[in-house]
Amino acid sequence: MPLRPSFLIVLACLLAVASHIPGHAAGMPVGLSPEKPLLMAPDGQSFSVYAVVNGKFFFTPTRHAAIFKDGKYGDMAVFKGFAAPKDFHAALMAIGAKPGGNMTLENKETTHVQGDELAVTVSWAGDAREHALDEVIKDSNGKPIVIRFGGNLPTSLDKNTGCLICLDSCPVGIASNGTYTYGAVELRHEAGFTGNKDVLPADGTPVAITVRVKK
After folding, report:
1. Cβ neighbours of residue 13 under 8 Å, at least 6 residues apart?
2. Burial class (CB in 10 A: 0-12, 13-18, 19+), 179
3. What would the pLDDT profile of 97-132 be if each residue is shown by its tens digit?
4. How far apart are CA 14 and CA 92, in angstroms?
5. b/e map of 112-145 (b: 16 or more CB within 10 Å)?
6. Which sequence spans correspond to the domains of the chain?
7. Are 194 and 60 in contact (CB under 8 A)?
8. What mean pLDDT is reported for the chain?
9. Cα(69)–Cα(183) distance, integer angstroms
10. Nearest-CA neighbor of 63 among 161, 199, 203?
11. Beta-carbon contacts of residue 66 (< 8 Å; ≥ 6 apart)
């Protein structure tokens, strides 16, 4: 028996709503916006940050995945975030992530960031699923991006760079990539990171960066 048009309309509406629940595999979470740039999932196991794509880094290497737009380095990341570092840090604590606290300005070039490993994904309206950070940001060496919760809140507030997620171990960024020590990108040129233009939407497109503790 053919499905009635009214049933199909209801089904389509339900699917559209489901695709925007925080933590779901696609789209932008309902309520996430420039005015409300950080949204906790109902289960308390993850949160999403509102950001926009910075197309400049499709072609120019960077050591930053996401930076708060009002920080000193606000235009130096693949994703321009709308949540402040202190709120990003608080959200990580709220989902039960434990900071490493092992990075300092003195040991940064010889130390790999510690702390809980984080699963970071990126999604946007009209997309079919969440994308792992490795899919949307390319490491020139093809190595995995291993994001850990470094902590670093006092240094972050003092330096006011706005760094949320850095791509080498960082004493200032709230979270960073433990695959490399600080200086691997800008000082020693061991690696370079660019946004994956074959996966990401166009420059300026809103995205949701969703963060969970990796199981």
Report:
1. none
2. buried
3. 999 999 999 999 999 999 999 999 999 999 989 999
4. 30
5. bbbbbbbebbbbbeebeebbebebbbbbeeeeeb
6. 5-213
7. yes
8. 91
9. 23
10. 161
11. 49, 51, 77, 78, 79, 80, 81, 164, 165, 209
CB 212 within 8 A of CB 95: yes
pLDDT in tens, 12-70: 443 443 433 334 446 899 999 999 999 999 999 999 999 999 999 999 999 999 999 99
Do 47 and 91 contact (CB within 8 A), yes or no?
yes
Task: Count the neighbouring beta carbons within 10 Å of the beta carbon of residue 99.
Answer: 21
CB 151 within 8 A of CB 115: yes
Work out whether strand 64-68 and strand 163-166 pair parallel, antiparallel, or are unpaired: antiparallel
State how beta strands 118-123 and 206-213 pair: antiparallel
Residue type, 120: V
Enumerate residues 6+ apart whose C-beta is below 8 A from 206.
28, 50, 51, 52, 124, 125
Q: Is 201 helix (H, G, I), strand (E, B) or coil?
A: coil
Q: How many CB atoms lie within 10 A of CB 31?
A: 12
Residue written as token pair 């809140």? 153
